[in-house]
Amino acid sequence: MKVFPGDLLYSREHTWVRADNDSNLATVGITDYAQEKMGEILSIELPREDSFMERDDPFGIIESTKGVVEIVSPLSGEVISVNEEVIDDASIINTGSDTYDTGWLIVVEMKNLEELDDLIDAKEYYDFVVQELEDNDFL
Fold first, then answer.
1. Which residue in 56, 67, 94, 111 has the most C-beta neighbors within 10 A?
2. Do residues 81 and 112 make contact, with C-beta atoms less than 8 angstroms apart?
3. Residue 104 lies in a domain
4. What are the beta bridge partners of residue 52?
């Protein structure tokens, strides 16, 4: 079983969030577990900078060897940065620990910091993944 970095928050849709409450900025990516379950990631479509996204709405698309999946936004806010490197070379996300480092997807200026309260910590996410595996409920 994967170990999930303890300094991040997680959604039940398998995204991670590194929040900076002082600046209202949050970096968002997909978890290594999600990448592993999707298989090799072939391409990623992400929103433009300056676009606005709402929590629980799709903000991107991942094409993998197992299919096409929408990426669901864990937060509402304005996209202020997009990781062009993962658009140009989606294999960055396929390399395990890079998923949480160079494999980030977007940086969002959060509209509502209270939405962070709906995310879960690494222990809760681990428990969620274990339950999902038992239920065989991913992809």
1. 94
2. no
3. yes
4. 78
What does the pLDDT read at residue 88?
95
Q: Long-range contacts made by residues 130-133, C-beta under 8 angstroms, separation at least 24?
A: 130/1
For the domain that residue 61 is a member of, what is the CATH number?
A: 2.40.50.100
User: Residue 18: which domain range?
Assistant: 9-130
- DSSP per position, 77-107: EEEEEE-HHHHH-GGGGGSGGGGGTTT--EE
Region 89-94: mean pLDDT is 88
**Number of domains the chain is built from:** 1
Q: Is residue 74 part of a domain?
A: yes
Residue range 22-42: mean pLDDT, rounded = 93
Domain membership of residue 52 (yes or no) is: yes
Q: Nearest to residue 118, comparing CAs of 35, 44, 47, 56?
A: 56
Model confidence over 38-73: pLDDT tens digits? Answer: 999 999 999 999 999 999 999 999 999 999 999 999
